[in-house]
Amino acid sequence: MQDSRQGSGNMIEERAADTSKQDERLGTEPLGRLIVSLAVPSVAAQIINVLYNIVDRIYIGHIAGYGDVALTGVGVTFPILMVIAAFSAFAGMGGAPLASIEMGKNRYEEAEKILGNCVGLLLIFSVVLTGGFLIFKRPVLYTFGASNATIVYAEEYITIYLIGTVFVQLAVGLNTYISAQGNARIAMLSVLIGAVLNIILDPIFIFAFGMGVKGAAFATILSQAVSAAWVVRFLTSKKSVIRIRRKYIKLNKKTVGKIAALGVSPFAMQSTESLVVITLNAGLQRYGGDLYVGTMSILTSIMQLITIPVQGITQGVQPILSYNFGAGKIDRVKGAFVRMVAVCLTATLLLAGIAVFFPQIYVQLFTDKKELIDLTCQVMPVYFMGITIFGIQLGCQTTFLSLGEAKVSLFIALLRKVILLIPMAVIFPKFMGVMGIYRAEPAADFTSVTVTVILFIFTAKKILRNTGKNDMINK
């Protein structure tokens, strides 16, 4: 028994020695250089990842004869895609910060238990989501804003997409564990491979093979399959600091509980995006019609183009925050936070500012129909006004998540969308007509950023101060 424990300990020590240079730089390398080295590939990965859906919509919107209607139909499927992504975030973003914290404490076996349980959760989610949405897809799509004119395109796209749910879950959910090790470039490559393949296959399937909307869906799931294979291969190789091991895939109640406690925040953030789109689409259909629902399909795509790069910055900095928090290096946590918020705010000011002052730059990517272009350009400056300062909230929320503060992070995730935006999107149009739906977005954004900053000032200081005291006691 003693020999077994000693052998296990030697294995962990040997593995830690082999990989220490890779993850220890999170706690030793100068912050500015470290943040750039992790954030730039992470931003690139997030931008590339969003191209899966964005590129589909760009090509679909330019299908001769029915591109605008098909684009609206595919836009209706967006809430389902977000729910699928939310479950991958639940397991991936719920576990990756915990794994980083454990690595900061040199507890690699615990980090691998978290990774293994994440794999088990993602496989279960894949089966449940695929079966559930395939059975109830038609009533769900009508609920999400489909009309008799757009339902056929929505069904064509989502039916094929759902077949590849397992690939989406593994590719997106497990890639966070590559980033958590400080391997941002590898994480970027895993996304880049699939996205480039998708860009190549889209025009072939949609136009050359004449498959239309179905071709876009086929191109997406094939590309995600390649990304998933790349991610799994890396996480089972000797290049990975922590690896997928069969013995840890079996779910452990305690480990799943830890993942769930932290994962509920990113899950709420992404899944409520679906609820938001459902609410907005239903209101736009009621007060405006298909053309207004079409604007939301474009607006949500542009919202991704703006917020996803910023989320890439936060995901790049997250391992630095978690690792150093686990190692008790509070000054590095503070330094990384300040730099992250500054960069995030600059990014949202710039990217959302373009949408506010030069909306046609974005809109013309998605459609060539003049009526849809004109209407979208009219509403976009209103819709994106509050996103200009949204980088502050993303920075604060990521910090709470990185420090393992599940409850606070969950509240912030729910605040903007569930507590503020959805009620406003229902109430405002009763007094302002269809434009009230678009005005609800900036009202919710400004309010949530203000509340988040106040909450962060009072809460974060207490967390870091207590951690600093505990670290001194341990010494």
From TrEMBL:
Against InterPro entries, the record matches this protein to:
MATE_fam (IPR002528), MATE_MepA-like (IPR045070), MATE_MepA_subfamily (IPR051327), MdtK-like (IPR048279)
Question: Which Pfam families does the record match to this protein?
Answer: MatE
What GO cellular-component annotations does this UniProt entry give? plasma membrane
Query: What is its subcellular localisation?
Result: Cell membrane
Q: Which GO terms describe its molecular function?
A: antiporter activity; xenobiotic transmembrane transporter activity
Q: Which UniProt keywords apply?
A: Antibiotic resistance, Cell membrane, Membrane, Transmembrane, Transmembrane helix, Transport
Q: Which segments cross the bilayer?
A: 31-52, 72-93, 114-136, 156-174, 186-209, 215-236, 337-362, 382-406, 446-464
Basic and acidic residues bias spans: 12-23
- Its primary localisation, in coarse terms, equals membrane
Q: Which residues form a coiled coil?
A: none
- BP GO annotations: response to antibiotic
Query: Which CDD domains does this chain map to?
Result: MATE_MepA_like (cd13143)
Membrane topology recorded in Swiss-Prot or TrEMBL: Multi-pass membrane protein
Is Transmembrane tagged as a keyword?
Answer: yes
The region called Disordered is annotated at 1-23
Q: Which family, according to the similarity comment?
A: Belongs to the multi antimicrobial extrusion (MATE) (TC 2.A.66.1) family. MepA subfamily.
Q: Output this protein's name.
A: Multidrug export protein MepA
